[in-house]
Every structure is written in C-alpha cells, then in structure tokens.
Amino acid sequence: MGIFPAGETHDPRPTGKLIAAKWKHEHLRVILIGAILSFAVITMYTSLLNGASAKSVTVVDDGKFAVYQTRSSDVSGFLEEQNINVGPYDRLSLSLADPLHKRGHIVIERAKQISIQADGTQQVKYTTEQTVGSALKAFGVQVGAQDRVVPALDSPLLEGIKVSVIRVRTENTETKEPIRFAVVERKDADLAVGKKKVITAGKPGVLVKKVVKVYENGKLVRQQVLNQAVAQPAVQQVVAVGTKKKPKVTTLAYNASTEGNVLKLNGNTVKVKHVLNNVTLTAYSAGVASTGKSKGHPEYGITRSGTRVQEGRTIAVDPKVIPLGWWVYIEGIGLRRAEDTGSAIKGKKIDVYYDSEAYADRFGLKRGYTVYVIGPVKPTAS
To answer: Which neighbouring-strand residues pair with 230?
Structure first.
C-alpha cells in the first residue's frame, strides 16, 4: 500500500494585509454613504431656502389677470424682471419703491388718449379715468347745467375718443309786431259808381311775442315763441263804395271827323267811334308829385273808376271827351283805357300813366297826337 500525506483539517489564519484591506473597504463605504446623506441634506435645505424666498405676485394689467413667480424684493425690480412697461400716465396701485410681499397684488391702470374740444380749443390728454364726466372733472373742464357734452358724461372712455363740450346759452326776448288791419267795403248809394271814400281809417294793431333763443357756442341754433298777446287790437278800415250810376253821355264836346273811322291793328280792321286830332299828351305816376298820395294812403294807386293803375293800360281823360272805361288807340303810344281823371285834364288832353315818376317827369308836354276812340270793348287780335 502506498503512503499518502496527511491533509489539513481547517482554514489557515488571515494575514495582516488581508485584515487591513477589509477595514479600508468598510470605511470607504461608510464615507460614501455619509457624503450622499450630506448632499441630500444640503439639497433639501437649499430647496427649502429657495422655496421660502420665492414670491407669488398677481398682476391686474388693464383688467387682465396674470400670476408671476419672482424673487424680486420690490415693485421696481419685479416690473423690470418681468419686462412690464409702465407709461408716464399709467397708474400703479403701489409705488416703485414699495416692497413685494409673499403674495403680492399689483394693479396697473393704463392711460387712454382722448381729445377734448371746448371753448374754441382742442387738447389731447391722457387719463386713467373711466367715464367722460370724470375725465373732464380731472382736467378742470367745467360743464354748466345747460351745456351739452358729446358723448354723454356717463359714457365710458375709449382709446382715442373725441369729447366735445358745447356751451349752451338761452336768452329771453320780447318783440312787437304790427297786426295788419282789415279793409271792409260798404255800398253807398249816394256815391257815384267807381268812387270810393274812406269812412273810418284803419290802424295797425300791436302783437307782443315772448321768444326764447338758444345759442350753442355763441351761434343761434333755434328760437321758440313762449307766448304771445295782443297789446293793441287793429282798427279795421271802412271804405264806402259808390253804387250811384252815372248818367249816360249822349254828346261829345268835340265832333271828330267821321272820315276813315276805321283802324288797322295787327292786320285787323277795328271800327272806331270817332277820331280826335291834335291831342296834347302829358304823363303822370301814382306818387305824391302827381296825385298827392303816398304809398301809405288808402287810395294810393286807385283810379277814378276804381281800378288800380297799370302801366301800358291806364290813362287819365276828360270824361266829357272820352268816357271812362272806353278804349282808345294813341298813335305812337298804343292801346290805352280811360280809367282816371285829373283836375288839369280838360278837353283834348290825355295824361298817360307810367310806374316811374322820373320818367313821367321827363315825358313833358307833347302836342299834335291823333287818338282813335274805339269804345268800351277792347279790340282783340282776332
């Protein structure tokens, strides 16, 4: 049998180097764990510190809400940090130097540009007021009780709005106006036909009116009659109108030639009653120089026959030569109607009426005219 060496019965003892390595490994692990724990503690502490210093700020900018996180200590720093611009006319609820609290609240009212037209001037202003009335008051623009503002005082202010202050002034006045008198005609059997006579002279009345006038910016825009009353009634004018018929004219003072008692007018043959030769013509007007009556006289422009004078028609005659109402043809003058008389018109003399008093004066005295007496019916072109 062979011989085998005897085997070891247990582990050999550790050497010193092994013990030292094992100790070092344990300590490194402890150190690493300690470092990790320290970093965690520092991080947590820093986070707590940062959380403690952060602020939540609510900003209401022209009615719009927004919430910001900031570490700024005052309002000025916060606005700069958030790039929020505030204009010179804008309004802040806090001053720029005010400190920010943990839960701050800032209100920014943005100024609006408005145009104010008042008292002849126009101004451009900036304001944070909310209504037209408060803006005018803030700028010292007085508004009277009668003044009108466009838009109205309670209208909201909008960007670029134009405000007009219209100065209103009322003025009460009293005026007097004449009341025309009525003319009443009454028949008078003792007065010849064609004659008129004023029995009672008319007199204008007086009407008093109380008027309110409204001025806007110095210009009259409307007026209204508040009341009116008759201070003096008008007196009617009474005129007598003659109805007494004149006796028929049976003879003429002048016997005109009967030869060729026809007249050619516009190619038509017109029979004539008689022909007057060597007639004298003068001229007159309705004015004072010819009749002694002015325009205010009740008989101004009224002829002896009762008609109103008319240039191109009316002549004054001697009724014993040419009856009133008869038509005549004056050579060089034309057709005329005998409607008037005159104290100086006697015999073969005719006064021709003209509207112009100056022309009547220049007419002078003209002799040698031939006059064809036609009759009471005016000849026609037919």
So the answer is: 207
Cis, bond preceding 99 (omega within 30 deg of 0): no
Domains identified in the chain, total number: 4
- Please list, in sequence order, all residues whose beta carbon lies within 8 angstroms of the beta carbon of residue 218, skipping any fewer than 6 positions away: 167, 169
Q: Which residue range(s) make up the domain with 354?
A: 262-375
Record the tokens describing residue 111, joined without a space: 């100024």
63 Ramachandran zone, left/alpha/beta (phi>0; psi -120 to 50): left
C-alpha closest to that of 245 among 347, 344, 324, 303: 324
Q: Is residue 145 part of a domain?
A: yes
pLDDT in tens, 197-226: 998 998 999 999 999 999 999 999 998 898
Q: Is residue 118 part of a domain?
A: yes
**Domain C-terminal end among 179, 210, 244:** 244
Query: Which residue do the tokens 């026809």 mark?
Result: 262
pLDDT tens figures, 74-86: 988 889 888 999 9
For residue 204, what are its two tokens?
């204008």
The Cα–Cα gap between 127 and 116 comes to 12
Contact (CB, 8 A) for 276 and 373: yes
